[in-house]
Amino acid sequence: xxxxxxxxxxxxxxxxxxxxxxxxxxxxxxxxxxxxxxxxxxxxxxxxxxxxxxxxxxxxxxxxxxxxxxxxxxxxxxxxxxxxxxxxxxxxxxxxxxxxxxxxxxxxxxxxxxxxxxxxxxxxxxx
Length: 127
Known about the structure:
Blueprint: E1 3-7, E2 12-18, E3 25-31, H1 36-46, E4 51-56, H2 60-76, E5 81-86, H3 90-98, H4 107-123
Parallel strand pairs: 1-4, 4-5
Antiparallel strand pairs: 1-2, 2-3
Helix pairs in contact: 3-4
């Protein structure tokens, strides 16, 4: 089953994709603007994703924003299976990969790829 993962941020949204039991692949970043929903739903349709993983932080303020994001996602496509994945330390892992301590353009996409890895490890689908 195809998977899209989303690292949601107030400015940028990182996306990654996995076909079946394959390895996570980057889809890039999207600006969190008026075109966000069009772009996300377009990627979900193009990749024929049935599962959407959404990074879920410890911060209560961001959790509320992500809960609202998930509600809208399910309104747009009620057949999606949306799964919250603990996103703690995904940014640290992304920084380790890029070698950049400051926010790097690839961090959100790398974090989204890590969400897929965590889901695969949790469900026993190891790529």
